[in-house]
User: Fold serine-type D-Ala-D-Ala carboxypeptidase from Evansella caseinilytica.
Amino acid sequence: MEQKKSKKIIIRALVVLCVFFIGVSVVFSRFVYIQAEKEVQGQDLQTLLEARWSQKKIIEGKRGTIFDKNGEVLAEEIPSYTIIAILDEKYKNRVEDPEHTAVELSKVLEMDAATIEEYIVTGMENERVQVEFGPRAKYLSYETMKEIEALKLPGIVFREDPRRFYPKQSFASHILGYTEKDMSNARMGLESSLNEYLQEEDGSISYQKDGKNRRLVGAEDIIDPAKNGDNVYLTLDTRIQMVLEQTMNQVEEEFQPERIMAIVANAKTGEILGMSNRPTFNPNQYESISNYTNFTISSRFEPGSTMKIFTLAAAIEEGVFNGNDDYQSGEYIVDEWPIRDHFRGGWGRITFEEGLQRSSNVAFTILALEKLGEERFYNYLHAFGFGEPSGIDLPNEANSSIVRGSKSELATTAFGQGTAVTPIQQVQAATAIANGGKMMKPYIVDRIVSADTGETIIENNPEVAGEPISEETAEEVLELLETVVTSEVGTGRPYAIEGYHVAGKTGTAQIPNPEGGYLEGHGNSIFSFLGMAPAEDPEVIVYVAVDRPQLEEEEAGSTPVSMIFKAVMQQSLQYLNISPSETTGIADKEEKVVGEVVGQKTDDAVEVLKDEGYQVIVLGDGSQIKEQYPQGNTKAINGERILLKTDGEKFHLPDLSSWSLRQVYALKEMLQLDINIQGSGFVQSQSPEPGSVIDEDTKISVTLNTDTAGTDAGKKSAAAENDEDILMD
Assistant:
């Protein structure tokens, strides 16, 4: 019995021993596995150990800065501050009086005191350690932070956060674009398209610590350095851009147009020196943006007569333009549809040079249809860059839409109707005229430089995009375009600048009506001017377009456009140290002061004013001058009409042919006449006949140049543009 009992004990012992060894083997195997894999239930033991015995801190990189060509900051990362209210009672520095705190903060923040107090009270009721006050108490400037800090409010502290800042506010906003305040997303413009260069990369620093979170002495730090975003230098010149922004603000306020577009370019290199749109926005307040479109590159429209520049260049290059040849102005029939000049009756038989100066659509229809022909004309359009984007280094560039098919489409394209192009395409094409036939690709990014090493990563240089015409042709085109500004009949007279010779072309583009045809009515056009100066060797190109300005009946479309063009071009030339020309031009005459002749004898006053070069219109048969227009000691162009009202009692109606609307209004006021005025611009017809005796009861009717050109409704436009910018002195 005892042997059997001993045997059972031995067996049990062996079983227990085997189980023990198996258990030890399993544990040992697991230990070996853990040692090798350093993982338990999916948890990385090495990571857990490093987290327990090491500390890692983020080293924040800095987003790249955008500069103008002279190194002025246009977009940068700066520190900002968020208000935090400490509420927990275990902190000595905590909010003690919610109402007082709220009232004091409301004096600095754009927030109601009750709203601030509600944040604090709600936080206390919910036993929050701290609270913030919403978006209006975030991303505060250093100045605002200091102002709040000076209040010495218990429990009010600040957290520092980086944010994107645009120091010049709405300056070049569509070019720069914007990022969200915390720079988490880049939106629009260069901020978006160059984000891969501007974007920073955070780094880190790691070190070992003991159980009390103290850095271990002698332990080696592991540093992964941050990479700062690259810096971008633009071709924009802040001085030129600032003048552009200021004058566009003035025009926007005074004329309330639908849109304004303007580009300033270096004629020799294609560098964009200035570019802006209206409506604009402040990228620091991107929540209120109403217009996200950079019209200068993303909007295409029928350009109007600025397109005649390139039709003219093509005709000269092909040897089919003779400025002294004449033609019958007024109307030209194409496929049974009339193309008309903006002065419906035309100017009789005039030369092609005068047709250019007067912006005759008939002249350019003849050049396109009879002189160039379809194939050659469209080949030149393509050579001038119309038909494909310019390739400017800005996002969302649109392409042109060139109509081609019928003869009427060829004709209207030649003078800027039907076909739609972008402002930047026109500026690129104009560089060929200004630069001896070499067309320069426009660009706005000068270079991209590493903020960490100073190494230039990308550098742009002037690039010839094509040579559509010869140097000789370019010179001849410039000479002819200068006469558009200097000629007595030139549509460009309002764009003359004292001391400089300007070459350029006006444009008045009709706007398609969604219901068919084109919009009608005074001011319902896109008025523009594409000009280059100095005309003898252009350095600067300025394009300005104003869409549907609110004009008075006596105001011309050139008024808002010339306000921008003249200010920007003159300042640009001066900033670039381009000296005024020694020869005089039309602009120099604008500074002449009219003498005061009221009270003088009629014969003496007439003699004096005629000697000064003015056209003198005497009203009445009196012997002494009672009133004059323009008034004495005001400026007037040499050769302008001077109206003199005498003390006589009998008045005859002058010949009003070619009088401006402003001069007609002056006559109406001086003699208190009943004049029915139709249209705007220069007088086309009048009733009664010149020389008729008139008085206050005489019914007088005057018709001025009006926008009567165009084809019949329903057909694609062969309509002539109304170059209204000439129609006011």
